[in-house]
Design goal:
Radius of gyration of chain A: 13 Å
Shape of chain A: globular
Order of helices and strands of chain B: EHEHEHEHHEEEEEEHEHEEE
Largest interface: A-B, 23 and 18 residues
Radius of gyration of chain B: 19 Å
Number of helices of chain B: 7
CATH class of the largest domain in chain B: Mainly Beta
CATH architecture of the largest domain in chain B: Sandwich
Strand content of chain B: 35-45%
Distance between the termini of chain A: 34 Å
Number of strands of chain B: 14
Number of strands of chain A: 16
Oligomer: heterodimer
CATH topology of the largest domain in chain B: Tumour Suppressor Smad4
Structural class of chain B: alpha+beta
């Protein structure tokens, strides 16, 4: 059974709905839920969930990342990454913890080593 | 020193019905002061600027959202950041009074005497200031593609039936001043029947962004309701103002209610 997402669409601070298309880099300090399309990098100090209809054409950096949609770019998670069965990722994943459901498609390298920042701590 | 500005035509001329009781209550609380009635929007600015020049430390808007917005704009234009703003809600539209915890005119008089201040940064839309919300509704619920530039860093393209911009801090004193941008997608707004049977808009059709400055480019002229004041344009630049205003409210800046 799939684990519950770290954020829900109704509790996220930033919500990109299905019809929205963003061009440029999106950065935030809080949780982001993406059901639309982002053509650029997405960076936050909080968590990111990419819904089934969500698509990111760029890199993603966050504390916890959950992917049910598509990411064409590298993923950098401070704590964990969860790829649901509908996830499509074309890029490298850097994440200390990783969970991949059967059916998810990942094209890229996976690095589960601690980041330099974490090693210093 | 308190100075009261009344829009006598606001609501259903409700000021006439309570004028003597209100003035008596203010005298009892030791916060009475001159009352000036406005005829049009320019009067509010003239009266406010004259009151501040003559030493008023608090300008109190007696009326609805439109009157409050006129007073806030006039105090902001005066450049006197030490001047406080009070609200005595009258008439039908008192959203801002509700958001700062004022329930009715009797409650407002007690809060004025207690003088609990909260600071908010105003928002500017084109040449106007507002504190509460700027709401842009597409005509006839047509979902036209609109372009929004956010903080100069990214652009949003979406079919939009409505867009609402407010200050996050107004609803939650623990948050910092920031524009909360809510974009309602192409789905039509629920009609009266839908609302009666409990159908509401799909929440997944609403996007929510945080920003300091946004620029909207719309495909046609639309009317924006800026704290109840209509502005017609197709280009809107909305940003957080650098100037704070101090409003007497039911909450301290640390969020405690009184």
């Amino acid at each position: 059974m799939a684990k519950k997402s770290p954020i829900q669409p109704d509790t996220a601070d930033t919500i990109i709905s299905r019809d929205l298309r963003i061009k440029g880099n999106l950065s935030s300090d809080n949780d982001i839920w993406i059901d639309g399309v982002v053509e650029g990098d997405v960076t936050t100090q909080g968590n990111i969930s990419v819904g089934e209809s969500g698509k990111i054409l760029g890199g993603v950096s966050a504390t916890e990342i959950r992917v049910s949609g598509t990411i064409h770019g590298d993923i950098n998670a401070v704590e964990s990454t969860v790829c649901d069965s509908t996830a499509e990722i074309d890029g490298d994943i850097h994440s200390p913890r990783l969970s991949v459901e059967s059916g998810a498609v990942i094209s890229g390298r996976i690095d589960m080593g601690r980041s330099e920042t974490n090693e210093e701590e | 020193m308190y100075h009261y500005i009344v829009n006598p035509s606001s609501g259903d001329r409700s000021f006439d019905g309570i004028a003597s009781k209100l003035k008596a209550k203010l005298r009892q609380l030791g916060i009475d002061g001159p009352f000036d009635k406005t005829i049009d929007v320019k009067d509010t600015a003239k009266i406010t600027h004259a009151a501040i020049r003559s030493g008023a430390q608090t300008i109190v808007a007696v009326g609805g959202d439109k009157t409050v917005n006129e007073v806030i704009t006039a105090v902001n234009e005066s450049g006197k950041s030490s001047t406080s703003i009070g609200i005595i809600p009258l008439g039908h539209r008192n959203t801002l009074a509700g958001q700062v915890g004022i329930t009715d005119w009797q409650h407002a008089t007690e809060l004025l005497a207690a003088r609990r201040l909260r600071s908010f940064r105003l928002m500017d839309v084109n040449d106007y200031s507002f504190i509460q919300s700027c709401e842009i509704q597409m005509p006839n619920d047509d979902s036209l593609d609109s372009l929004i530039e956010v903080d100069g860093s990214y652009r949003v393209k979406a079919p939009m039936s409505r867009c609402r911009i407010s200050n996050t801090r107004l609803s939650n004193p623990h948050l910092s001043d920031e524009l909360l941008v809510q974009i309602y997608g192409g789905q039509p707004e629920p009609g009266l029947f839908d609302r009666l049977v409990g159908r509401s808009r799909d929440e997944r059709d609403i996007s929510q962004l945080h920003a300091r400055v946004i620029a909207l480019e719309l495909p046609a002229d639309v009317t924006a309701q800026v704290d109840g004041r209509p502005i017609v344009d197709r280009h809107f630049r909305i940003r957080l103002s650098q100037k704070p205003v101090r409003i007497i409210s039911a909450r301290y800046d640390n969020g405690d209610n009184i």
